[in-house]
Amino acid sequence: MLRNYLAPNLRKILEHLDFSEVEEVRLRLNRPLMIKNRLGCYSLSPLGAYCSCSEAYLVSREDLDRTLQLITQSSWYAWEQQIQGGYLTLPGGHRVGLSGQAVFANGSLKTIKNISSLNFRQAKAVIGAADSLVNQVISQRTLGVISTLIVSPPGCGKTTLLRDLARQVANGGFQVTVIDERSEIAASYLGVPQLDVGFQTDVLDGYDKVTGVYHALRGLAPDVVFTDEIGHEQDAWILGELARSGVKVVATCHGNSLEQIKTKTWAKISLEVFELMVILSRRRGPGTVEAVLSLRAKS
Question: What burial class does residue 237 get, using C-beta atoms within 10 Å of its C-beta: 0-12 exposed, 13-18 middle, 19+ buried?
Fold first, then answer.
């Protein structure tokens, strides 16, 4: 359980909190202990009550150091490869983001020292999150999957929706490959998905998109590839490779409108890969569907 990786002092403060509602726990040195749920971010008092920042419990160096010992099992070196990516993955697929002082060697990030904040993000599948969209992503006319781009600002439920779409598409009879570059979609731990992404889903955990696409095409024969956070020119190029191979794509991207997406470099290269765009917000909570747009005259 996520709570077990927190320092004993913090665990006691949080002991009465309903963790099923918690999205994040944030520890920042000498600053308020905070949690985030679907309604927003809140400071916690030494007794675990919501309070103002001026009344909040301040996270100490001992809290951070003890928490890091529990996360890494007192072996920082064994985790250095993950640390270079800025986060650690815990059993259950929970993720801990790190910030502190960067240490570079030969022009590359070697490790992070003097950790000043930790962000625990709880891995949770929301079964049914894609119920309202799955019959649009799976065409009722062709009975095939429609390549779909899910767009929203950060924290609006893109990955949650993507995960449940993968589950429903795979369980609907399609061969699915998830390229999980940041271990967020399937929340894999030691390569094993911790969240339900479907019976017919292969997960390429920690693969960059280019390597993942080539491995999928060469060995996994997917009908559909799911991937997160398109944003670079090379992403656009590899999406085109999938389209040329007859494989459908469901992916996410930061943004808030079709017009904004069209200004992005990758979109100028390969937005035509997608037939459908879903735009999300937090207006009525994470995963609020603001629009479903056809990107072609006929889909």
Answer: middle
C-alpha span between 145 and 247 (Å, rounded)? 9
Amino acid at 169: V
Sheet architecture: strand order including 40-44: 50-51, 40-44, 34-37, 22-28, 108-121, 95-105, 87-89
Rounded distance, CA 183 to CA 167, Å? 16
Q: Is the pLDDT of residue 133 over 90?
A: yes
If asked whether residues 166 and 205 sit together in one domain, one would say yes
Q: Looking at residue 298, what is its pLDDT?
A: 44
What is the CATH classification number for the domain harbouring 233? 3.40.50.300
Q: Considering only CA atoms, which of 162, 174, 188 is closest in space to residue 221? A: 174
Q: Give buried/exposed letters for 203-233 (b at 16+ CB in 10 A, else e).
A: bbbbbebeebbeebbeeeebbbbbbbbbbee
For residues 56, 57, 58, 64, the Cα torsion angle rounded to the nearest 10 degrees is -140
The per-residue pLDDT of the chain, averaged, comes to 91
Q: Is residue 128 part of a domain?
A: no
Beta bridge partners of 196: none
pTM above 0.70, yes or no: yes
Residues 194, 239: one domain?
A: yes
